[in-house]
Amino acid sequence: AHAACYIIVTPECTFGRLRNMILPPSCVQLFSRNFSKLHCFRISENLQTESDEDDDVDGSTQGSAKDVQISTDSSKQTLKIFDGNDAVKRNQFRLISIPRIAKNEEVVEAALRAYYINDDQQEYDLQTFTQQALLSDDVINRNDAAEDSNLGSVFRESVPEAWIIRAKPKDEEVIRIYPAWLKVGMAYVSLRVNKDSTTQTVIKEVLPLLGRQTECIQNFKLVEVLMGSKQVQRMVLDNQELILNRLKDIRKTSLRQMNQTRFYVVENSKSIVRVNLFVGGLPPQLSPEEYTNILKDELAIKTNVVSVSHVYQAQGAVVLEISCFSEAERIYMLVKDTTVNDKPLNAVVIPEVTASKIPRNSCPLLVFVNPKSGGLKGRDLLYSFRKLLNPHQVFELTNGGPLPGFHTFSKVPSFRVLVCGGDGTVGWVLGALEEIRHKLVCSEPSVAILPLGTGNDLGRVLRWGAGYSGEDPYSILVSVDEADDVLMDRWTILLDAEEPAEGAENGIVEPEPPKIVQMNNYCGLGIDAELSLDFHHAREEEPGKFNSRFHNKGVYVKVGLQKISHTRNLHKDIKLQVDQHEVELPSIEGLIFINIPSWGSGADLWGSESDNRFEKPRIDDGLLEVVGVTGVVHMGQVQGGFRSGIRIAQGSYFRVTLLKPIPVQVDGEPWIQAPGQIIISAAGPKV
User: Fold this and answer.
1) What range(s) does the Ras-associating domain occupy (predicted)?
2) Which of 118, 575, 630, 656 is close enough to 634 for a disulfide, judged by CB 3.0 to 4.6 Å?
3) CATH annotation of 74-129+159-167
4) For residue 657, which phi and psi values (nearest 5 degrees)?
């Protein structure tokens, strides 16, 4: 923070405006020793496009042997400055420009400034080296007596152009010791160490300063932590290690590294390794023993360190608890290349959330993002939400689906969900929630939508807008926090084909087993589903072209124009029963059951004029509206807002009899349905 800002920063982080929806880091545990950030935060490797820069790059003038620009000003000279042996080995130096006649201390000061070291320059000096000197550590580390005795001397033309900046040896110095996770009211304690101070004596002196004088020093260790820009390295110091020697070694390696190093006093804990690995893509509906056997056969798991802690039979997924890092890493890498019944397995490292540590008024947000939705806008949102929230509460749906997220939050007493994707993605998440609801402590979380798809009808109805167009992700989260809860009906559709699939020889083949799908928005039969099916086929042939809403809608129009002259007598091919009563159908080409007042990207199919035969539709009235369309032209007029559909019925239980194969679509997912029965009824509790 800037000095002026630092004064007003509170010492304790309150998580700011989004505090109610952030999953507090203190209640998340993840044993991640062998896993990179990509694995721990479940970031798909193929989404990674950031360049891999060197650890030390921070914008100051630095170079390697290849690219060095020398000052052209004849009154000045340019020197290469190395900050230690590590920089010499890598040939990474920083350039300083000094007058041709300059005092030794001026050069030291300029060298320290190049490395952002703001210590007293009296504590440092410069050593020269030649190319041969690079080969011998002794030469690098020699202390040039002649140079020392001549400190007041000035640099002249003949000086070598490369120097190493070195810290002068000290007999004692003051170091800071940080109290790690020990709950004490101070950031660090300062301690004077001399040439006899060891790790053990430091711990002994520090504990009373932290109010732990009664405790045995054997229960504590001193940990050296180097915080580089790419990673944090920890090293436990040996009890007899001389602290001054250790400081000297670090400075010899790199003075900058010394600036990035801290010492922590840490309580010894019996470390129990527990890595949780979610493995999906297994055959559904097997017993825990059968899953264990598959994993033994395919992944050769070691049952003494691997156990199956949770089984999701309906989804064909298990959670493994692994008590050995190398075994966890081996399984994780192996799963990626393993298929069972020709289906690839997937593995996700999942954190452990300690529900008891979540503050009482907190309601963390579980975020699901479909990076493929909305012309890759999903990918940018993933990055933003990981930064604004705890990355452990943000899940990418292409990486194992919604289940790893719901499993991670299964013990959280109260949470809400944000789904970023099209209506199909929302249906996917709601379907998964329905299946796993009984295993969640918070069995009915509210769901918000950030619409990324083409139609986004559900997003429109719930007032999240027609589609995301690059708004600030922070303001979206604020909107989610302030949004109101409403209830919505969901419907179950049972599809029971009575005839065997086409191509059955001698009629011996059994008909397809009944299929059950969930519906949130609408279900269409006939022309509406046929257009959807053609669009679906076009997208499967060239998925790369379908990454903008505008293009997608253009394809819908083109597909529709090809169907204008088609006449289909759908009313002759189906029969409709509403709440046990037969309903006579008018002459139509499409029959649509609607749960929400938005269809086909925002059109109002039912219409707004009042009608004493029917109730005014609501999304939580336990009723579906049934509407007919006469063809593509009629659908176009509805889309343009010039007409509405033909109102046919309203009810809570429907039976449709198909007399021949007919295209059907549910929430935008189309297929051809064989002759038979379709039954639509209310599904479980409202969502």
Assistant:
1) 171-270
2) 630
3) 3.10.20.90
4) -105, 120
Q: What is the enclosing helix (H) or strand (E) of 89?
A: helix 85-90
DSSP class of residue 177 equals E
Question: What would the CATH number be for the domain defined by 275-349?
Answer: 3.30.70.330
Query: Whose structure tokens read 């719901």?
Result: 406
The full set of domain ranges for the chain reads 74-129+159-167, 173-267, 275-349, 352-482, 515-682
Question: Where do runs of H (alpha helix) occur along 300-366?
Answer: 325-335
Strand partners, 460: none
Looking at residue 532, the DSSP 8-state letter turns out to be H
- What pLDDT does residue 60 have? 44
Whose tokens are 């007399």? That residue is 659
How far from each other are the two terminal CA atoms of the chain, in whole angstroms? 44
* C-beta of residue 204 within 8 angstroms of C-beta of residue 290: no
> What is the tens place of the pLDDT at every residue in 283-325?
999 998 999 999 998 888 888 889 999 999 988 999 999 988 8
Inter-residue contact 524 to 592 (CB < 8 Å)? yes
Whether 352-482 and 74-129+159-167 are alike in CATH topology: the answer is no
Residues 495-536 pLDDT 10s: 887 765 555 455 556 667 788 888 888 899 988 888 878 766
CATH tag for 515-682 (out of 2.60.200.40, 3.40.50.2300, 3.30.200.20, 3.30.2350.10): 2.60.200.40
Longest dimension (CA), the chain: 110
Both tokens assigned to 577: 């029963």
**Structure tokens of 53?**
């820069």
Q: Which residues contact 6 (CB under 8 A, 6 or more apart)?
A: none
Q: Classify residue 276 as exposed, middle or buried by CB count within 10 Å of its CB (0-12, 13-18, 19+).
A: buried
Cβ atoms within 10 Å of 637's Cβ, excluding its own: 16
Q: What is the pLDDT of residue 387?
A: 92
Residue 298 φ/ψ, nearest 5 degrees: -85, -40
Q: Which residues contact 254 (CB under 8 A, 6 or more apart)?
A: 83, 84, 85, 86, 87
Of 143-152, 316-325, 379-388, 611-620, which gets the smallest average pLDDT? 143-152
Whether pLDDT at 176 is above 70: yes
- Helix (H), strand (E) at residue 479: helix 473-482
Q: Which residue has the higher pLDDT, 8 or 139?
A: 8
Q: Domain 352-482: state its class.
A: alpha beta
Residue (of 543, 531, 491) closest to 638 by Cα position: 531
> Topology of domain 173-267, per CATH?
Ubiquitin-like (UB roll) (3.10.20)
Q: What is the pLDDT of residue 199?
A: 94
Compute the distance between CA of residue 240 and CA of residue 255 in angstroms, rounded to an integer.
24
pTM over 0.70: no
To which residue do tokens 């579906």 refer?
Answer: 624
